[in-house]
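Pasting as-is:
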Amino acid sequence: MTKKELLLGAVAAGLLLSGAAAPAFAAKGEGRHGPRHAAMVERLDTNKDGKVSLDEFKANISATFKTFDTDGNGQVTKDEIKTRHDAFREARKVVRDAADADKDKAREALRAAGPFMLPGAGRMFDRADTDKNGTLSEAEVLASAETIFERRDSNKDGAIDTADARPHKGKSWGKGNHGKGGEERAERMLKRLDANSDGKVSQDELLQRAAETFQRFDADKNGEVTKAEVDAKREAFRDARKAYRAVKATDGEAKEAALKALSEARFDRMGGRMFERADADKNGALTKTEMETAAAAMFKQRDRNGDGFITADEMGKRHK
């Protein structure tokens, strides 16, 4: 059994940020995880007083802006953002595919190639682009950075330090390492896989779902899933997400239908990540046997007490 097969159950890989990485992603989740929050503070604390001032924060963002502004014209375009994000995905893939002995070297190369994230980029681009000229100036990016800083400075003392490493408003640490949101996702996943509704998932149920998912991806029904078929499912997810956003502020059947379509498409997107990791022979196509082998490996890994079932508390956890 390869290590990549054992990684089948990982739905989302942790982001490896560079030493000068923009704290936009820190704003999304590091506050809920003390060690990573502390690492962010240490990275951005240039005068080593144990906290990050707004000036230190903005200095980091200014340096990141210059990295994104490849032509040096003082504006960052969507193409420049896409180029950096594509480079990050490729570098992360190198880490994921590296042999165990080369992992540390690949991670170091990923960090050295950064930064890859910029406040105001991505889905926040249109909001950050206040003058609506289709690009981001340094001033617009820094304005987004100030908003992030204010949100992260939870005790409002004018600095970000380890005292700010607490759950976001309305969220709790929850049980284990997953918090309330993680528990809810585990419950939803279990309900989806629990065909006989007995509150737990057997290996047969998991393999059955894997087989059904395989059939969904195998569009030409030739017994193999190709990268093109996986990409098509990802595109379908993007379309479903766009359709849901168009109606999410409304009520009624249209919203419910869009939400259901998005849920199914999201599961397919997750399945796409699984397929890539389960391609044991790395020939660019996944057979049903490879999928079943990887699913069985995932089941064994998640069934921590070895009772032959995966319960909600095991759904979101893996052996280390």
